């Protein structure tokens, strides 16, 4: 299953805010580090804020920060919130399948999806940040730091 760019960038934004947990971070900084559109990040930040994952801080030195501790942000919940988990038409609420009731595809896909989500439910944002030194090194190379400062 491939995550949408929206979900992928949402997760990476949360990771960035988790790495810099005690700071207020601008979308420009995140945009520069991840090389993503600021307009796309604005939509993501709005959704993450609306969902209670991040807080916005207004003012001259404003930006964003995590709204809760990383150990309380479950990865499975983020996937459920932002991904379309109806893998095939028949999994939709009013979906139709010409093969019903004989088709076993829906059940197989549902079992696979449940297993996928069960694994992700075992991870929190905190778990994704356990190698913080390596993440910091990857994110804050000299090149990226110069770009952020300008």
UniProtKB/TrEMBL annotation:
Molecular functions per Gene Ontology: DNA binding; DNA-binding transcription factor activity
Superkingdom assignment: Bacteria
Name of one Pfam family that matches: Rrf2
An example Gene Ontology CC term for this record: cytosol
Cited SUPFAM superfamilies: Winged helix' DNA-binding domain
Co-factor requirement: [2Fe-2S] cluster
Keywords for this protein: DNA-binding
Gene3D superfamilies xrefs: Winged helix-like DNA-binding domain superfamily/Winged helix DNA-binding domain
Keyword DNA-binding: yes
Name of this protein: HTH-type transcriptional regulator NsrR
